[in-house]
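Protein in question passed on here:
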Amino acid sequence: MIQRLTEERKEDFFFTLPPELDPCWKTRQCVQKECVCFGREPLQCWTIDGTRCKGEVKGRFPYKLKDCMACDFYQEATDDPVLRIGIQFSHLMQIIEKKNSELQNAYDELKATQSHLVQQEKMASIGQLAAGVAHEINNPIGFVTSNLGTLQKYAARMAEFLKMQAELYSQDTGDDRAIRLGEIRRQFNIEPILEDLPSLVAESLDGVERVRKIVQNLKSFSRVDQSDCSLADINQCLEDTLNIIWNELKYKCIVKKEYGDLPQIRCYPQQLNQVFMNLLVNAAQAIEGQGEIVISTRAHATEITVAIADSGCGISPENLSRIFDPFFTTKEVGKGTGLGLSITYNIVTKKHDGKIEVTSEPGKGTTFVVTLPIKTE
């Protein structure tokens, strides 16, 4: 019953209140005529977006619910414990429906972004990382899907409980009605359901948020050719990059972060994300077995430096002078385009008036140092 009404979005189920209850605007002698609830029959105003209460415009459901629960009208409207169970359950179903929709949208955006990225030669490395990104979102999607399955079972049980409860109220007016109602609650195991619902919702919201962050970072990488120059925190750019490529690093090395206190600089953040991604992925691929990558940032008088050092196999002297040449690669055929470091060099030197230096010792590791001028205008 609840599932069917949710799908049909019947207003009298989600938003209306018993007709004998005075509406909020009349109870509170409200003069906010522009409020969406003003002049209407009793409504669950706490579930309606953009209401006006005491002259203040409220936000969107369910984010406004915490404040509304302190309102005397809400407390009066939900005074009946049976009615409160139904209202709170409908709230949770609406929240889950909203968050499930957001999760689906995030997944659709991720697929669209990945499709866009693999078509760009500059971002060929992102195509190689697609499996890792999919792995990173698999866990949150897994437990959100499991939670939604549990909620579906709870919804069916609650629907049957509410149906029997309604029949009891319509047929039984004697003193034993409360006893019978308690028996029905125990029969359908209602109390454990009510205890379990908040944690299921909280876990689902956390899973959606984790996916949203991954999608947001991935979308940033998809805009590498945009011309917008803006103030950016380089430490945050590094963190965004690590979020995207973490699956490539976590099994091969320990990542140590030694971030300095940096001023924001005017730059092309998405292009610098590509620089850091190229350097970090190369560092991880140079490590055999288990190793270490150290990321350090420092601020100087007129510039900032970003150093990325690995404990990998190093680069031979004859190759060191060629690593920034287009199409030069020491990787196996099919595992590199030879454009990554060339693009990195152009972004740093031509787009940002900076410089990039490299030192390496075969068998011990390699360090890249990116220097960027501090520009605020």
